[in-house]
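Quick review question:
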């Protein structure tokens, strides 16, 4: 099939696709064997891990935009998640344990995280949801409605919360709470209508206006989270398909995909929470990295400090990352 017929957005050219794909493949290879010049050893490792993860994500979306087959994205998505897991692990050595791969308070990171969660549903990879939650929950559990609700469609034990980081997602969130399919569709249409303009402060905005073999940020403009909700809510998405940022082929893939056994929600224990955050479940919680007994914390209470020796050997209250040792 001719490239102009199979591409999924009209902005991309075959020449640009081949060059930008090659760039990301070379970037992954380069940052596997090379470290950035500046920073501490830990910062250099984290920087290289970020570049690898970013290129894997960008390459996956670029291939979709160019009209490549969707089925291989199921495996590519797992590679992307693994790359962000490594990045978060490296970052935790620079900052603190549990440092998130995506800072959800920042719009660019938030959109990418929602895209990844949406892809888990559309590509039938909900087995990856607990891994994404593990990256973000230590900092962001119970702090954003869209994050919690998208996870809840494939995981048990998520939290109802009525707040979110970015006002531009209000219509997207409202679509999950409409009294009818018509209301949900109206909300998603409103969201898609404003989606591109709402991203105007991000570096890739308007990047399709400068596609060359020397510079490029365009990998496709896709409101994947909206497509995931249309799929999960089982909506007639005929009207949504009029929007250029609506990835209708992903919805078709999700609806037509056949597997040997249907996916089931993944039961998971509460993910680690930090001192000061709300306890998600009553039980005995253990402070990571401290050789002290676990403490009983009730659901809804704030996680305490740990009373443990500091570097001088003196016992004093310290913030900690807590994991559930056993339910009470």
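Suggested answer, residue by residue:
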């Amino acid at each position: 099939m001719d490239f102009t017929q199979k591409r999924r957005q009209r902005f991309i050219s075959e020449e640009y696709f081949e060059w930008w794909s090659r760039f990301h493949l070379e970037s992954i290879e380069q940052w596997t064997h090379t470290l950035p010049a500046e920073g501490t050893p830990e910062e250099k490792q984290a920087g290289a891990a970020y570049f690898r993860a970013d290129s894997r994500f960008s390459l996956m979306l670029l291939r979709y935009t160019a009209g490549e087959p969707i089925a291989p994205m199921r495996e590519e998505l797992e590679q992307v998640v693994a790359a962000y897991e490594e990045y978060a692990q490296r970052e935790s050595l620079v900052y603190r344990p549990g440092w998130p791969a995506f800072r959800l308070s920042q719009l660019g990171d938030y959109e990418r995280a929602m895209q990844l969660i949406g892809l888990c549903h559309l590509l039938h990879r909900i087995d990856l949801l607990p891994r994404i939650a593990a990256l973000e929950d230590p900092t962001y559990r119970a702090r954003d409605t869209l994050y919690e609700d998208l996870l809840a469609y494939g995981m048990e034990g998520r939290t109802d919360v009525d707040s979110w980081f970015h006002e531009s997602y209000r219509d997207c969130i409202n679509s999950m709470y409409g009294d009818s399919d018509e209301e949900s569709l109206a909300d998603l249409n409103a969201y898609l209508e404003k989606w591109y303009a709402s991203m105007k402060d991000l570096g890739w905005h308007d990047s399709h206006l400068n596609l060359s073999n020397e510079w490029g940020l365009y990998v496709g403009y896709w409101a994947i989270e909206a497509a995931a909700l249309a799929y999960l809510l089982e909506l007639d998405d005929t009207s949504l398909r009029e929007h250029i940022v609506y990835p209708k082929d992903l919805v078709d893939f999700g609806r037509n995909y056949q597997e040997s056994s249907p996916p089931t929600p993944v039961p998971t224990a509460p993910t680690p929470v930090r001192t000061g955050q709300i306890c998600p479940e009553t039980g005995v919680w253990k402070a990571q990295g401290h050789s002290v007994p676990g403490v009983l914390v009730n659901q809804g209470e704030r996680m305490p400090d740990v009373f443990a020796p500091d570097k001088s050997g003196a016992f004093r209250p310290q913030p900690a990352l807590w994991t559930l040792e056993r339910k009470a």
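Why it works: The chain has a mean pLDDT of 91. The chain has two domains: 3-256, 273-327.
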